[in-house]
User: What shape does this take?
Amino acid sequence: MKVALFVSSYTPETGGSYTFEHQLLDTLLKSYAESKHTFVLYASNRPGSKYRLDPTLQTVPTQITAKQEVKSQILGLARNIAYGLSDSIGNYLVERWHKQYTLNSFKTDRIDIILSLTPNCPTMEYPYITTVWDLQHKLQSYFPEVSASGEWDKREKFYAKMLSRAAFIITGTETGKAEIQRFYQVPAERIRVIPFFTPQLALTDPPDDRDISIAYNLPDRYLFYPAQFWPHKNHVNLLLAIKCLKEKYNLALPLVLVGSDKGNESYVKSIVQELDLSAQVSFLGFVPQADMAPLYRNAFALIFLSFFGPDNLPPLEAMALGCPVIAANVSGAAEQLGDAAVLVDPKHPEEIAAAINTLFTDSILRQNLIDSGLKRANQWTTKDYVREIFTLLDDFEAIGRCWE
Assistant: This one.
């Protein structure tokens, strides 16, 4: 089959979405020869903006064109115009034109199926495989990032249509599969569970740990939380736990926060001031991916308290780098992390504080978590994920050959 590999416009500042797609795409482009299918790379690009495709990936199609029918389609002109227009009618007309242009491109290239590595789909007029990471707008609609300014309606319309028409849907856990079935009545046989792979931070060549400590003025034995400043990332309950840890257990562990501001950072900083924790809490802002590995390695533990799931990447990153994990016990967390993390109720600061104190006082527990985490981190790689995608394409081939 001829497969349109559709790439989104995520950038490093996007966080986990970029990490997931970037590493998966890199592995797929290195492994495409293992598949009997032909891949055509479509990259949605907005030149000159922060949403442009990573430059290192733009050169990949050129490198492999000689071996396989792979070419890069930059579908950016119409989207540039659409984003620049404020008039709703203009937006509608240009987006409609862009969809038709995309569809015509697929027809010209004689595409059989579209593969999107992220929750996306450029057109629903072709068979397509898409991905679902979470449906939290259905489960926790009170968070402003999934409800305010028409966001809930936008998500609901998008998922209801996209999931209902997908040839296959990829999700990371059985929990995620059950949610797709529950909310959108998609038949089970059209949903494939492919567990999240462990990001390859540990396999890169990071800067010297000592240099990172100096560059960021890192304290000793700090708790680490890499997360964008969205309300659902739950920084406030973590700060309350840090306060409780200090008052109840006389333990003043430093906290290092990493992530871009998504509108909630100033509020989190105000809570730090209110709780008199300024001397303990460091805000590093956005940190380049090359610096993340030593930040994990130098940490006493990862404290990952996001209310959203069922799949998350930071706990897997931490495990791969020997950093013990305390994570929110959200739906699907036990399935993803197994016994390699201490799970806590993210709504209860006292429970979070107790878990941190136990980890601090029990060196055997901490080492057991490190050992279990390393095993868990090596269970599923990007290569495993890509092989499952190739199997999914093979399964569809028997269906797709029934028409031209």
The first strand starts at residue 2 and ends at 7. The longest helix spans residues 88-108.
